[in-house]
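Proteins fold. Shown next:

***
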Amino acid sequence: MILAAGKGTRMGSLTEKQPKALVRFNGKPMIENLIVKLKNSGYNCLLINIHHFGEQIIDFVKENNNFGIDITFSDERNELLDTGGAVLKAASFFQGTEPVLIHNVDIWTDLDLKVFAQWFQKSNAVAGLVVKERRSSRKLLFDSRMQLTGWKNSKTGEIKISGNNRTGTKEYAYSGIWMCRPEFIPLIPYTGCFSIIDAWLAIAKKHKISGYADKNSRWFDLGSPEKLKNANRLIAED
């Protein structure tokens, strides 16, 4: 599942007439880069949620013949549901026996998604979150076994605790990529518009949600003009 429904307000003029998913990075629209990577990683069935200029994303995918794979859409043009509500609205996509990868459209990384999927299959967790040690005011908290125990915002001082075990708490920034098993969806205790982080914290009180520490890959947040410009510069230097 590609999360592409954001309004892209941080992008300024770049999203006045188009969705963030179609803003170009490294010469191509963000969503094209991601679809091609997912296809090359073995994913042949994608769901994309849409909101801001959503019809442009639909048209772009159709113009490219669905990139030769099965692509459908979850339409949020009438109501933006945030990262958690988007997953819940798409509950039927998560049915079956296979886990589902969820990837933010404005994240670029050379992380090997096959390796991440293999790790998740062996984890016995209901959800696995890709995290990194990087600068961020918001961090996920994990115990010594990399089980999710909480969340904190260093700017506001807000802390949300999920588990009881805070021994050896490690702090990591979320990377915008995660996987879950079909049984994760019925565990979600919220409805409507909500953050997936709140769902993780609630579910982690009784179920295993694990962190996958990504230590070696390059990773870029493409969500603002400044970050996009910097990422394009670094990629061009390679």
About this structure: The domain at 2-237 is CATH 3.90.550.10 (Spore Coat Polysaccharide Biosynthesis Protein SpsA; Chain A). The CA atoms of residues 74 and 90 lie 7 Å apart. The chain has a mean pLDDT of 96.
